[in-house]
């Protein structure tokens, strides 16, 4: 092949160089054209250009478009995109049915649960989120509310006792004697259950309750019924709920 390329190139070179070597006017016609191989390009080259090298450096192993391989932005197996972890942490939302448990030492109020469940569902709270609110209410909020209510009621009972002592009809200087009449009426007509209720609830300190018992006791005295011989001023609770 090298000899063939050289022959072909030499013929082409000679045909291109012939016009330049034509004899001058008046010279010998038909003289053979000079042949020269000076400047001839090496075999395999045309016009001085280099033949492309086979498997030139830097191209070996390169993959053409469409061939198998990693594509830009292609997700690898097992690889999570940014933000996937956050999506994994999102609550699953409201369940088909909530199953609540009461904190230790407490009981669930069914009526309160029935009111709370639609709200939790509207807010799309998960079972875990809704249970946390139930636990918070049962262990923190409810005890605090009960404590405040108890303190408020105790203050109310004490205020009733003060109002009874200052009442114009049954209080003042007549308060001790009127308590004796109230005790007589309670001992005669009140059942043990009523006495317990009045004592535990504090309603026995209410001015109107004392007024009622005073009037009943006064009516009994007018009919010459036996009255208590206890002396000395005591509180309304002692008179109404003391031992007979």
Mind explaining what this structure looks like?
The chain has 8 helices and no strands. About 15% of the residues have low confidence. The longest helix is centred in the middle third of the chain and has 40 residues. 50% of the residues lie in helices and 0% in strands. The N and C termini lie far apart (142 Å). The chain is mostly helical and 244 residues long. Among the domains are: 67 residues; 75 residues, no CATH class.
In brief:
The chain is mainly α and 244 residues long. The chain has 8 helices and no strands. The protein is rod-shaped.
Summarize the topology:
Elements (H helix, E strand, L loop, with lengths): L1 H16 L66 H5 L21 H13 L4 H40 L8 H15 L2 H10 L5 H16 L13 H6 L3
Helix pairs in contact: 4-7, 5-7
Specify the number of helices.
8
What amount of the residues lies in strands?
under 5%
> How would you characterize the largest beta sheet?
none
What distance separates the N and C termini? 142 Å
Tell me the structural class.
mainly alpha
How many β-strand stretches?
0
The poorly predicted ranges are 20-45, 224-229, 231-235
Provide mean pLDDT, rounded: 73
Q: Element order, helices and strands?
A: HHHHHHHH
Please state the CA-atom Rg, rounded to the nearest Å.
58 Å
**Which bin fits the share of residues in helices?**
40-55%
Overall 3D form: rod-shaped
Attribute tags:
single chain, 244 residues, mainly alpha
């Amino acid at each position: 092949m090298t000899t063939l390329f050289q022959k072909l190139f030499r013929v082409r070179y000679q045909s291109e160089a012939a016009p330049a070597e034509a004899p001058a006017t008046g010279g010998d016609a038909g003289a053979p054209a000079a042949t020269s191989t000076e400047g001839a390009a090496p075999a395999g080259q045309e016009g001085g250009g280099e033949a492309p090298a086979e498997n030139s450096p830097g191209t070996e192993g390169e993959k053409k478009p469409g061939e198998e391989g990693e594509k830009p932005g292609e997700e690898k197996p097992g690889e999570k995109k940014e933000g996937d972890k956050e999506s994994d942490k999102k609550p699953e939302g409201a369940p088909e049915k909530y199953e609540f448990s009461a904190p230790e030492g407490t009981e669930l109020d069914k009526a309160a649960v029935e009111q709370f469940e639609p709200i939790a569902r509207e807010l799309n709270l998960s079972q875990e989120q809704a249970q946390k609110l139930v636990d918070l209410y049962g262990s923190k909020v409810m005890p605090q509310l009960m404590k405040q209510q108890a303190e408020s009621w105790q203050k109310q009972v004490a205020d009733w006792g003060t109002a009874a002592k200052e009442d114009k009809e049954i209080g003042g200087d007549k308060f001790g004697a009127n308590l004796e009449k109230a005790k007589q009426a309670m001992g005669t007509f009140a059942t043990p259950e009523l006495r317990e209720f009045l004592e535990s609830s504090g309603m026995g300190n209410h001015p109107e309750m004392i007024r009622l018992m005073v009037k009943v006791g006064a009516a009994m005295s007018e009919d010459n019924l036996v009255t208590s011989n206890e002396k000395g001023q005591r509180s309304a609770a002692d008179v109404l709920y003391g031992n007979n």
